[in-house]
């Protein structure tokens, strides 16, 4: 809740964090997002937010967010890591998000610490911030709130955060860039430093760990270029992708630039206000999203949970996304995306789960009158076309931007708005 409007709230925050105004802060996480007004406001300020909330007594808040055209996923800070690699977010935020940050030895703060980039900011508003003036309204005592605030400050300091700025209802901590602070932690200190037994970037059904993730000395301590320059700069972790390099990423960007130009010729809705919520269902470097960056869309980049984990590259470029296994349901409500792009997904998934299950999940996610662009081997496209017909999608087959390429073709599908015949209802 933002009594003076979310714009005034973010204006105050941006005064406390100048990096929000100059392109240093580009990616953000809003835990306990409500209807994602914070992320919605930031979108207009060129900051891309993953807004996160569960379905609880606050009802379908993530559905409202997506209906408003704001990026959001269903999720909870609970026992499993968020599906996001380490050192990805430039900023994380909680406004009255009800997450018990100081419970369980600070486990939930450690998860925020993992996903924040060194130098990234953690912003808290609501209890216990400004408890001196606000405690009357919180059904608590001033002593209890003071104790909670003191505990929070101590925990954050012990995890290598420093109080960066504070005014009124907002407090900002910064994750340390100083390796010396992490060097003081060991697997037996409190808090402990994470050992190498679990990859810090592994985030698919990985239980949260009660330890502090030290930034990798090689790549994660360095400041990234500001937005929008960082979109075109290959980050150091491009080397986690097999065959990954700066030139491979540039080549991939070139491919997607040509592909998106071709897609727009075949599907004029792309690039218009008819398409807003877009998902790239199987990306490597986020090249498809990068080619759409000037359009009135946002793209959820999905990196396979069982292939090479290139999602860190996507975040380092200033794009957002999540890990996912397409043999499972995606953490979203029905009818929440306007366009799905599946590149080679069926060839990749065919040995793992049945194609019809993936297509039925796509149908669930796609809003009626939304589109799917499916790019795959012609053998798989034939099967996709027949299942899509059963789902009452209308699909047209096309060459890719490279006509001569017989190994890859396109299916552009339009989900119809239909209802059961009267006699069945
Ligand atoms: C009071 S609302 C605040 C919403 C929004 N941040 C605002 O200020 O308007 C609390 C939010 O926290 C979410 N929430 C509660 N516990 C959570 C948890 N463990 N992980 C993620 N979100 C949680 C709720 O679903 C809800 O979206």
Automatic annotation (TrEMBL):
Please classify the protein's predominant subcellular localization into one broad category: membrane
Which keywords accompany this UniProt record? Glycoprotein, Membrane, Methyltransferase, Signal-anchor, Transferase, Transmembrane, Transmembrane helix
GO-annotated molecular function = methyltransferase activity
Its Enzyme Commission number(s) read 2.1.1.-
Concerning InterPro entries, the annotation shows: Put_SAM_MeTrfase (IPR004159), SAM-dependent_MTases_sf (IPR029063)
> Subcellular localization, per the record?
Endomembrane system; Membrane
The record's GO CC annotations read: endosome; membrane; trans-Golgi network
Q: What class of enzyme is it?
A: transferase
Q: What is the membrane topology listed in the Swiss-Prot or TrEMBL record? A: Single-pass type II membrane protein
Which GO biological process entries does UniProt record here?
methylation
The UniProt entry, under Pfam families, shows: Methyltransf_29
Which family is it part of? Answer: Belongs to the methyltransferase superfamily.
What name does this protein carry?
A: Methyltransferase
